[in-house]
Specification:
Elements: H1 2-26, E1 31-34, E2 42-46, E3 48-50, E4 54-56, E5 59-66, E6 72-80, E7 84-86, E8 90-94, E9 99-102, E10 106-110, E11 121-127, E12 130-134, E13 138-144, E14 148-153, E15 158-163, E16 170-177, E17 190-196, E18 201-202
Antiparallel strand pairs: 1-6, 1-18, 2-6, 3-5, 3-17, 4-5, 4-17, 5-8, 6-7, 7-10, 8-9, 9-12, 10-11, 11-14, 12-13, 13-16, 14-15, 15-17
The structure holds zinc ion.
């Protein structure tokens, strides 16, 4: 009994490890990444400010930012898959004075090729997207069950996140209040354009 349970647990752990390791290699291309002026193997900080509003279903924030702290990180060097780790995205001036804050770490992969030049627009997606909306009259959690799509434009240094509600990728839970505008289990869309000053280039 004990052995059978241990074997079952081991198999489950193995399956989990394979699933967890899979997307990093299966869904992102490999790039030579430059950040903050360096393409040597290492890291560079990533900061950004929005050039658009941040929309998250019925919640609209006049601006959004990836702040300096907690640090978000560009992985620099050759043969990079996990281009960017976003550790915080916050919205400001949001509907109903709510706060919008990311949770966890989001990982960005690219899926189209980049040249050595600095004018590529690369299709990207984000793994692990989750956010919390919190306010006096509305609270809910948004969780990504799949990949949140976007683009990174080298020339303008803009990361555009554009995920339609119809894709079903982002799901709402833990709803409190919100005047019936969001329901547990419903899909939600997300849109924002973030301009970075961190000199991110893919080659
Ligand atoms: Zn991926």
């Amino acid at each position: 009994m004990y052995i059978r349970r241990a074997l079952a647990t081991g198999a489950a752990l193995l399956a989990t490890a394979v699933l967890a390791a899979g997307p990093a290699h299966a869904t992102g291309l490999t790039y030579t990444v430059s950040g903050g002026g360096s393409s040597a193997p290492g890291t560079a900080p990533f900061v950004a400010s929005s050039t658009s509003s941040l929309t998250l279903g019925p919640i609209v924030c006049t601006s959004a930012a990836v702040p300096a702290s907690p640090a978000s990180v560009i992985t620099t060097g050759p043969s990079v898959v996990d281009i960017l780790t976003l550790n915080r995205l916050t919205g400001s001036g949001c509907t109903g004075s709510t706060s919008v804050t990311s949770t966890g770490s989001w990982t960005m992969h690219g899926t189209t090729t980049a040249t050595a030049g600095s004018t590529d627009v690369v299709a990207v997606h984000l793994h692990g997207v989750s956010l919390v909306v919190a306010g006096a009259i509305c609270r809910f959690t948004v969780t990504g069950a799949g990949l949140v799509d976007g683009t990174f434009d080298e020339a303008t240094q803009r990361l555009t996140i554009s995920e339609p509600a119809a894709s079903g990728t982002l799901t709402v839970s833990n709803v409190s209040g919100c005047l019936g505008q969001v329901q547990n289990g419903s899909s939600i869309g997300m849109n924002v354009v973030l301009a970075t000053s961190s000199a991110l280039y893919l080659g």
